[in-house]
Request: fold
Amino acid sequence: MNILRLLRDGPPASRRLIFVLATLSGVGNAGLVGLVNEAAEQSLLGMKVEPQLLIVYVLTLLIFLLSNRSALHQANRFVQSRLEATRRRIVSKIRKADLRTLERLGQGDIYVTVAQETDHLSQTLPLLIGAAQSALLVLFLFLYIATLSLISFLVISIFTYLGVRFFLSRQRALTASLVDVHYREAEMLDSLMHFTLGFQEIRLNANKNDALFAHFSDVTGRLRDVVIRLGGKWVTLLQFSNAFIFLLVGVVVFILPAFFSGYTDTIYKITAASVFALGPTAAILSVLRLVGRAEAGLGHVYALEKRLDDGAPPPAGPSPRERSPFKSFSRLQLVDVTFRYLDADGNITFEAGPLNLTLDRGETVFLTGGNGAGKSTALNLLCSLYKPSSGQILCDGLEIKEENRQQYREIFSCIFTDFHLFDRLYGIEDAEPAEVVRLIKRMELDDKVGFENGRFTTSDLSTGQRKRLAMIVALLEDREIYVFDEWAADQDAHFREVFYKEMLPDFKARGKTVVAVSHDDHYWDCCDRRLFLDFGAILAEGER
Reply:
């Protein structure tokens, strides 16, 4: 089971402590029942209840309460630590995954698994630990019944075993249905994101807006139908849980006295033990309905991990930037590099290349071409965010392979069209505030943005202005190669002039290499070379 796998990975000492405390709690619970029966029997026989019995009862009660409380606290702490470690492990794999792996996974599936599933598990698993403790309490009560009447213990145990078997069979069917719910929720989240990411487009096009809403309605409708079917299975389990408790009491009170001689002498003791077991049994059955949800949730978590592991590169080691042998590079080469986009069945949907490119240090190169020409693919290959399907990437004659790929990536600073502006200067926390303020002024944003506590005071800006903030971050990173994917496209005429006539010459003067996608044909004289791409291949090259 996935739940056992999660718990098994924790520190053995913590598991042993929880088990000892839970066992002590179970023994205390059974001891309380025995003491209550002993006191009741003395009263029934007209005997005076001895004070020593009361003292033992109070001490046993204290042991039960303290051990029960400690076990639950330790279990909750243990479970939350395991989930926190799982979250960190998954996010660590996400941050080290290849770009194509994340593109295939999809944002909806990642968010639902990492955020929603683990959040649900953090609330559910402590309840399951509590149910496990209740199971120990019931076990000791059954052992107490065995000391009173072995035949009664066997009958109750067989009845309980059959009930649990039936419950677990229904539980497995429920777990299978929960898998479908997960993917329906991820599908709904993907559809929902279109309303926010594409808000401008759908407000300008009513037909697109209506069609998107109709699709979203279909998705939520399918989710509703799946959840309704799931609800029917929940109801069956709920009815069984309630019926089982009363049937168990009925067996104890009505069935056993009629068939076993000598049983009536201890009927009240067994009945009392059974009544004490009702609370823990009800808790177990109510929480066990969550087992399927938790099991399915952990299944999605481990499945996501496996998919990340399948596409994960080997560890790059600490500080790949400092250890990179490519910081002083002189020439990069793409030699017959191709890249194939594959669908889920492994079929090729698009192939870029072969790309042959030589890039010297300090050059400024423009990439041009129509939509779908393969410019973004070429940039991802150049930065080694995509691994070539064939061909070689060479840096000063050294081939880029898995063992040095991250060191090679560390010489790039990129602003893609779908760039993300982080909430603070991660990785460059030691940046001088005065330098950041100077760059803000250079980007003509000083009337809108400040810099405080290691972060920009706002990012609620136009796309062009946000790109200027991204440029500030790139300048602070001070890498050897800068890649800009249509950076100037969202700038006004004035700042477009600044980019081509001031910033690019400044990069060149500092010995930086620049590769920029540009469609500003009246600025094409600002580069050393211009490459034209079509259908994923370089067709022409223009010299300055």
About this structure: The first strand starts at residue 331 and ends at 342.
